[in-house]
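Researcher: Hi, I'm a grad student and pretty new to this. My advisor asked me to get structures for two proteins we've been looking at. I'm not sure of the right format, so I'll just paste the first sequence and hope you can take it from there.
Model: That works fine. Here's the first sequence with its structure tokens right after it:
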Amino acid sequence: MSAFLQIHPVDPEPRIVKQAVRTLLQGGVIVYPTDSTYALGCHIGDKAALERIRRIRQLASKHNFTLVCSDLSSLASYAQVQNSAFRILKAYTPGPYTFILKATPEVPRRLMHPKRKTIGLRVPDNKVVQAILASLGEPIMSTSLILPDEEEQLFDPYEMRLKIGKLVDLIVDAGVCGLEPTTVVDLVAGVPELIRVGKGDPDPFQ
């Protein structure tokens, strides 16, 4: 059974943040809150942890993974950002958006879309994940916490413990989270293309 730690959603306790970071660095898979839904995350360089997430979610090879970043400066290390795209990123981050961009060589190929060589990137407006990112010093490889054959994300940490407690290493419980995933916007061509409507306001991209 995974570790299950409750954390303050606004003033996260440093010892719990450190345990989350330690779990990531040791090759673990964690469940953590964001500004939209809970997410599954692992260290960006850990192939085995990524494969565990693929099995939990039963993801196809073409699935676009997301790198959750602390700010725009770290995001720019992993994506090719045109000036027009940067203006959009600056205006809508942090927030509940995922932006699809061309990946840089810093991104492991296994995280990219196999044909388009793209990666999803986002900067969440959430105190807990921001504290984890600040302590970790690099992005978290992430995907939404939605199980196979289910239409909605898990939002109650106690339900997560029952359903996937044996499949992950740590559940960071910041209380009941939202059900709306991020709004997804493709910025590869420099002109925004709305891919999925979620919690972030889609109007600027329609």
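Researcher: Oh nice, that was easy. Here's the second one.
Model: And its structure:
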Amino acid sequence: MSETGMKKNHILRKLFFSTLYLSTFTFGGGYVIVTLLKKRFVDELHWIDEEEMLDLVAIAQSSPGAIAVNGAIVVGYKLAGIAGVLCSVLGAILPPFVILTVISFFYNAFRENFVVQAMLSGMKAGVSAVIMSVVFDMASGIVKSRDAILLIIMVLAFIANYFLKINVVFIILATAAIGALRTILREKQG
């Protein structure tokens, strides 16, 4: 096998096992796994830079479907094309599939079990902390960029969602339109 083929196999294997591990041991939904994807592929492996990861997360968030799977798709595609998508998606969906299949057989026992209920309540606090970490990491990246327009968009999006209770879909569509308009204007100027 050529060196390029061995390197691609290494990337695919690492991609599969990374998403499998993250998906297996992550509780709290997609935003939690997005933070861990960033930690793994940006901070530890250095395969993606932080700015690119923010772009990939934005794509994952604006696409229909589960953000954990969408995150795996965009990271997998960025790193290894279609083969990367297949490996990362398989790694991301396999653990929930197995876990939910097992839980469905024992649903009544879990529903009534005090210990399981207590564990789930405790996980809520941990999930909240991880989501706050995601928000902080993403916001600090925008603040570090010192881009006034991005800062204004971030503040307005927060106000629109939190105080004005505007549906997040409309906020995503508006910010996507602003981003597209900015890109078009930059291309015309450059």
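Researcher: Is there anything I should tell my advisor about the second?
Model: You could mention this: The chain is about 85% helix and 0% strand.
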